[in-house]
């Protein structure tokens, strides 16, 4: 998936979070982070930087946003909004930071794009300090939630079950790099304030999942979603369940 071809133009709008949801995610990150402050944080696969400035505000230390796609990173740099944030070219398998330089690493819906989890695990362990933590927001097919868009695009669920990593093999891979399992936290996340807003953002097609289903499936899905929006008499928030995997580097 090359985000520099099209998605850099729509990603920030398509994947924007309501302010209260961003605040809640940062609260959850802080709950599972090492207790000391300030913390040096790596936002790995930072995209357009939707979390990076908030991480700097919460943890008080330097925050590096590492992103392989130039146009995604350029958007993030133009909207950094915090002196402690630095964006760098790199990836999960080639992190441009020194050994033992980070206290916390965040991968938010990134791991399924990483071609070699073993290399990524070793790189993450390399840049972490002992006692540092890794927060991985992902789908895991062995604990797959019922996401709202699966009702309209069932083919996406089938693809997600193939694309996203299963939990147990992933834990084995990270354990081999010295990163031990702490917990998996199930987070309730508001993704839009109404079904209409949810539909409008999905129509920007900012998710790579749309690149993996047919145009016919997309048309049929949006027709069904449009009908559901018309039938909604009183707008209600759209919520999803999310998994946050927490790992720790042994001291």
Number of helices, counting only DSSP H or I runs of 4 residues or more: 9
What structural class do the secondary elements suggest?
A: alpha/beta
Percent range of helical residues: 25-40%
Sheet with most strands: strand arrangement: 3-2-1-4-5-7-6
In whole angstroms, the N-to-C terminal distance is 36 Å
Which consecutive residue ranges, at least 5 long each, have pLDDT under 50? none
* Mean pLDDT over the residues: 92
User: How many strands, which pairing sense, and closed or not: the largest β-sheet?
Assistant: 7 strands, mixed
What is the string of helix and strand elements? HHEHEHEEHEHHEHHE
Strand content: 25-35%
What do you see in this structure?
The chain is α/β, with parallel strands linked by helices. The chain is 36% helix and 25% strand. The radius of gyration is 18 Å and the shape is globular. The mean pLDDT is 92.
């Amino acid at each position: 998936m090359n985000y520099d071809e099209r998605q850099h133009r729509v990603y920030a709008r398509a994947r924007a979070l309501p302010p209260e949801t961003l605040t809640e995610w940062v609260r959850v990150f802080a709950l599972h982070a090492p207790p000391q402050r300030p913390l040096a944080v790596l936002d790995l696969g930072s995209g357009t930087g939707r979390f990076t400035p908030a991480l700097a505000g919460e943890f008080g230390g330097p925050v590096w946003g590492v992103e392989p796609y130039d146009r995604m990173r350029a958007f993030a740099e133009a909207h950094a909004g915090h002196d402690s944030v630095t964006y760098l070219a790199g990836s999960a398998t080639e992190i441009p930071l020194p050994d033992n330089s980070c206290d916390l690493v965040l991968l938010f819906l990134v791991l399924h794009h990483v071609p070699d989890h073993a290399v990524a695990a070793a790189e993450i362990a390399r840049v972490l300090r002992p006692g540092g933590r890794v927060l991985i927001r992902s789908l895991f097919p062995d604990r797959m939630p019922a996401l709202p868009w699966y009702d309209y695009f069932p083919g996406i669920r089938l693809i997600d079950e193939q694309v996203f990593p299963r939990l147990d093999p992933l834990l084995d891979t990270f354990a081999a790099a010295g990163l031990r399992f702490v917990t998996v936290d199930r987070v309730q996340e508001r993704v839009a304030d109404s079904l209409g807003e949810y539909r409008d953002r999905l129509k920007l097609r900012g998710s790579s999942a749309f690149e993996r289903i047919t145009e016919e499936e997309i048309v049929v899905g949006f027709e069904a979603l449009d009908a559901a929006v018309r039938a909604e008499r009183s707008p209600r928030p759209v919520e999803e369940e999310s998994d946050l995997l927490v790992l720790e580097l042994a001291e």
